[in-house]
Specification:
By secondary structure, the protein is of the alpha+beta class. The protein has six helices and seven strands, in the order H-E-E-E-E-E-E-E-H-H-H-H-H.
Length: 238
């Protein structure tokens, strides 16, 4: 028996509507003093005007369930790929939505897209009157990493002195950032090939494996949209 796991996608299918820039997600909400997008949940991102949560189940239709669990008797509706979902809550890997159907969908097969027009990857960090703390350097590095500037992120982390108590954490973070960046870069390349060879299923299946780097998930969004378009076209009667 097939277990449908829901995935979040936006209303690019309606004529004249375009989906603003992924991933995981997640993604590029505009930062502010009271809101840190690096730690934002899908519920927080859903409140931003420049973010959307889209359904993209590799094996549509997407099941909406009455509870955040897989059971044969808790399916309350289904949703086609390319439909915008209104996220109101999150629990244990599930997203609660109240439109177009009220219920729960599985987060792992979701993609949240945000507008990247305000990307700051090319901006230099502010010069400080005093040396930055390790906490501040880590925060700045993470922001640049998510914004698409791996080199800038690593350079910020290298400014943490070896005698700093956080130095071991910083070394581990540099390694993790580099590995995840490479994984995302490789996944994007494979997705491009899959689109070029008209294999939309491959793109949708790999979406949840892309590391949660806003830059790469945003780049993946157009490929996911194209994959859904190809999949729906293939399903049309001839």
């Amino acid at each position: 028996m097939k277990l449908q796991l829901p995935l979040v996608v936006g209303m690019w299918l309606t004529a004249g509507v375009t989906v603003v820039g992924v991933g995981y997600a997640t993604l590029r909400p505009k930062p502010s003093q009271s809101f840190d997008p690096r730690n934002a949940s899908p519920v927080q991102l859903a409140k931003l005007s420049d973010c959307q949560t889209l359904s993209a189940d590799p094996k549509p239709l997407l099941n909406v369930r009455s509870t955040p669990s897989i059971a044969p008797d808790n399916i309350v509706g289904t949703i086609k790929n390319g439909v915008n979902l209104a996220v109101v809550d999150e629990r244990d890997g599930w997203l609660q939505i109240n439109a177009p159907v009220s219920g729960w969908v599985y987060r792992n097969l979701t993609v949240t897209t945000c507008d990247t027009s305000g990307k700051r990857s090319d901006r230099k960090p502010l010069e400080l009157a005093h040396p930055a703390s390790s906490r501040q350097l880590i925060a700045e590095a993470q922001e640049q990493w998510h914004a698409g500037n791996l080199a800038g992120a690593l350079n910020r982390l290298r400014q943490v002195p070896a005698e700093d108590p956080a130095y071991t954490q910083v070394e581990n973070l540099m390694g993790s950032m580099t590995v995840k960046w490479k994984q995302a870069e490789d996944a994007y390349g494979k997705a491009e090939v899959a689109i070029a060879t008209r294999r939309p299923q491959m793109v949708l299946a790999m979406m949840h494996t892309v590391p949660d780097i806003r830059y790469w998930r945003s780049k993946m969004a157009p490929l996911v949209k194209r994959a859904i378009e190809l999949q729906l076209t293939a399903e049309l009667p001839r």
